[in-house]
Amino acid sequence: MAKALLGHVNHDARTTSVLTVENSRLRRRVDDLESLVLRLQADNDRLAAAVREARAAEDLQPA
Question: Domain range for residue 41?
């Protein structure tokens, strides 16, 4: 059984380095996407505030 388990685990150094590079790339991509989400949330908040201000200004105008 131990032989079967060890045969299943791949100890190739090249595979490990490829996975390390891919893991780093994916972590950078996640960081980029998290930054994008924060920027879009800030833009959305700014636009929502502008809409609220515009609606409030319309409500103050005489009919």
Answer: 12-60
